Hints:
Number of domains: 2
Distance between the termini: 51 Å
CATH architecture of the largest domain: Orthogonal Bundle
Strand content: under 5%
Structural class: mainly alpha
Oligomer: single chain
Amino acid sequence: MTDENLMLHVRDGNLDLASQLYDRYNIIVYNFFLHLCFNKELSQDLMQNVFFRIIKYRRSYKPGHMFRSWIFRIARNVFSDHMKRNSALQSNFIDLDDLNLSVDSRIDDLEKAERIKNLQTALTMIPREHREVLILKEYQRLKYKEIADILNCSENTVKGKVFRAISSLRKAFFTMENK
C-alpha cells in the first residue's frame, strides 16, 4: 500500500496503520533532524513530535497530496516551533565532539576520511536554512518540486536556494580543507 493510501486510512480513523508510516519514515525524519541540529536526543524528541502531529492533524491531509512532502512540511514546522520556544537557549556553538564525527575504522584512505570529516564539519558551519535545503536535496533525495511543496515556494526559488547553499557549503569546506 502506498504512503498516500495509508495516510488516507489513518486520516479516516484507522490509526493502527500509522505504525506502518512510522516504520517507513521514523529513521528518515530522525536523520533530517540530526543533520539540522546535530543532537541525537533532540532529534529523537522532534521525530516523535512529528508523528504525534500526524495523528493530531490527520484530518488536514488532502487526497492527492504526496505524503513525503506533507511529513517534511510537518517536520519543518516542528523544528521551527522548537527553535522559537528555545530561542533564548540557542547558541552558534556546536560541540564537534557531540557530532560523533568518527569515521568508520575500515576506511583505509585517511585522506578520504579527513575530507569526510571536513565536509561534516563544514555542514555545521553553514546557516541552518542552507543546511535544511541541502539535507532535503542531497540526503533525503527529494526532487525540486517536492522541496518547493515543503517550503511553499516555486521550483526556481528552490533551485536558487540549493545553489546558494552549495556555494556556502563549498566555501566552508575549503576553509576546513585549508586549515
